[in-house]
Amino acid sequence: MDRSGLVEAVAHKAADGGGDLSLEQVGRVVDALFGTVDRAGALAEALRAGKTVTLTGFGSFHQEDGEPSLRPGKALNEFVHGEVG
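^ thats the sequence. predicted structure below, dont judge the formating
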């Protein structure tokens, strides 16, 4: 899934929950979180500052041996392995 696919999927999920977000709004959120070629997102800035970003159930983003890494959380692991959903 590329950026535009992610933006569309998030907008669709938000609409299912009664939200009304445009593709442009969701795109701005995705860019703010993950960044763009020109600007680092909040996730990259936190990693650069030596912080860990934890999204309960999804996992934690952190640095491991100076490289960014994701440690999947329980809910993500269970979903990917077909144990839920």
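The first strand starts at residue 53 and ends at 55.
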